[in-house]
């Protein structure tokens, strides 16, 4: 069956004074109905840019320079801005790190929800309000029939993020893009929000793309995970495999730094150096200056993704034709 989201050979570029910077350089992945795909990597790896490209939020001087993005088969990377706005609101829900960017502080929660519901669904005001109350209940807001007339500032950060999730799902979207949805929240609330997002995917068959730097969140939530590095996918596969037996040397280092949901931000203690700036991505494998396994070919030839059991890995060690072997 057709995936909900299909991204093929996506390239995103930014004009800068130093020339064209390639933020995303040949990224391909799919997300099926009801599946949660985690996208993980250090800051600057291209996770958020990938999400922004899918929802058509790459603004000049950035642009989609190549590839295809399809939503349930429909090309959405080249549709007019007006049509994309409609698709974005109705068929793709968005959840960002800071709930206050998605909520208007001057409007009651219920008004924001009913307005969004009525924009996308053909419902009269009382029916839209009823649906808003049901949605607030579904995302775990206690006594929703009373809280619906509160203002955003009357809610805690975690409760506000639940409201944002209610907004994101109110038109029953096929796809939800969540970019660091728990990063701004108290640790004790993070797990609840993650559980909620996971349950929504399961109950509604929604495909979820979850962007995070937090491997703990990935391990708790996702069916599959894509590890990004310098605008490419280093490894993608079932979360069990990638977390427990990562293949790519970068993924190995990242998994060695898994924090728990109760822990701090990941520190890549096992990987020396830092991810290169976009203006200075090394030739060959972008990871080679940091890789303990690098050999001649890595400095010259860029590794393409290769199937390796249930995973895909872009590393010359896993190319059967290579002279070196994955030990
Ligand atoms: Fe390391 Fe080479 Fe694999 Fe890149 S291709 S991760 S440098 S072994
Ligand atoms: Mg980001």
From TrEMBL:
<dbReference type="InterPro" id="IPR003593">
    <property type="entry name" value="AAA+_ATPase"/>
</dbReference>
<comment type="similarity">
    <text>Belongs to the ABC transporter superfamily.</text>
</comment>
<dbReference type="GO" id="GO:0016887">
    <property type="term" value="F:ATP hydrolysis activity"/>
</dbReference>
<keyword id="KW-0472">Membrane</keyword>
<dbReference type="GO" id="GO:0015833">
    <property type="term" value="P:peptide transport"/>
</dbReference>
<dbReference type="InterPro" id="IPR017871">
    <property type="entry name" value="ABC_transporter-like_CS"/>
</dbReference>
<dbReference type="InterPro" id="IPR027417">
    <property type="entry name" value="P-loop_NTPase"/>
</dbReference>
<dbReference type="InterPro" id="IPR003439">
    <property type="entry name" value="ABC_transporter-like_ATP-bd"/>
</dbReference>
<keyword id="KW-1003">Cell membrane</keyword>
<dbReference type="InterPro" id="IPR013563">
    <property type="entry name" value="Oligopep_ABC_C"/>
</dbReference>
<keyword id="KW-0067">ATP-binding</keyword>
<dbReference type="Pfam" id="PF08352">
    <property type="entry name" value="oligo_HPY"/>
</dbReference>
<dbReference type="InterPro" id="IPR050388">
    <property type="entry name" value="ABC_Ni/Peptide_Import"/>
</dbReference>
<dbReference type="GO" id="GO:0005524">
    <property type="term" value="F:ATP binding"/>
</dbReference>
<comment type="function">
    <text>Involved in beta-(1--&gt;2)glucan export. Transmembrane domains (TMD) form a pore in the inner membrane and the ATP-binding domain (NBD) is responsible for energy generation.</text>
</comment>
<keyword id="KW-0547">Nucleotide-binding</keyword>
<protein>
    <submittedName>
        <fullName>Peptide/nickel transport system ATP-binding protein</fullName>
    </submittedName>
</protein>
<dbReference type="Pfam" id="PF00005">
    <property type="entry name" value="ABC_tran"/>
</dbReference>
<feature type="domain" description="ABC transporter">
    <location>
        <begin position="7"/>
        <end position="255"/>
    </location>
</feature>
<keyword id="KW-0813">Transport</keyword>
<dbReference type="GO" id="GO:0005886">
    <property type="term" value="C:plasma membrane"/>
</dbReference>
<dbReference type="GO" id="GO:0055085">
    <property type="term" value="P:transmembrane transport"/>
</dbReference>
């Amino acid at each position: 069956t057709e995936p909900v989201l299909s991204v093929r050979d996506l390239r995103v570029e930014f004009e800068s004074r130093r020339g064209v910077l390639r933020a995303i350089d040949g990224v391909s992945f799919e997300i099926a109905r009801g599946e949660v795909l985690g996208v993980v990597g250090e800051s600057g790896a291209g996770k958020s840019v990938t999400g922004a490209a899918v929802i058509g939020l790459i603004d000049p001087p950035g642009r989609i320079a190549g590839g295809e993005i399809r939503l349930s088969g429909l090309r959405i990377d080249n549709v007019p801005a007006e049509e994309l706005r409609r698709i974005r609101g109705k068929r793709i829900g968005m959840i960002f790190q800071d709930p206050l960017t998605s909520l208007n502080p001057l409007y009651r929660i219920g008004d924001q929800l009913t307005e969004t519901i009525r924009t996308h669904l053909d419902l009269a005001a009382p029916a839209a309000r009823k649906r808003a109350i049901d949605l607030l209940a579904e995302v775990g807001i206690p006594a929703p029939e009373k809280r619906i007339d509160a203002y955003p500032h009357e809610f805690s950060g975690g409760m506000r993020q639940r409201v944002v999730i209610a907004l994101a799902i109110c038109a029953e979207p096929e796809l939800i893009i969540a970019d660091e949805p728990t990063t701004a929240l108290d640790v004790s609330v993070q797990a609840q929000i993650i559980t909620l997002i996971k349950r929504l995917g399961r109950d509604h068959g929604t495909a979820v793309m979850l962007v995070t730097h937090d491997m703990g969140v990935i391990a708790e939530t996702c069916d599959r995970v894509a590890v990004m590095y310098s605008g490419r996918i280093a490894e993608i596969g079932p979360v069990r495999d990638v977390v427990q037996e990562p293949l790519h040397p970068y993924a190995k280092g990242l998994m060695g730094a898994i924090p728990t949901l109760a822990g701090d931000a990941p520190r890549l203690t096992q990987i020396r150096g830092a991810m290169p700036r976009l203006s200075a991505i090394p030739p060959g494998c972008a990871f080679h200056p940091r890789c303990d396994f690098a050999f001649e070919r890595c400095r010259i030839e860029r590794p393409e993704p290769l199937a390796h059991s249930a995973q895909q890995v872009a590393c010359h060690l896993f190319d059967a034709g290579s002279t070196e072997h994955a030990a």
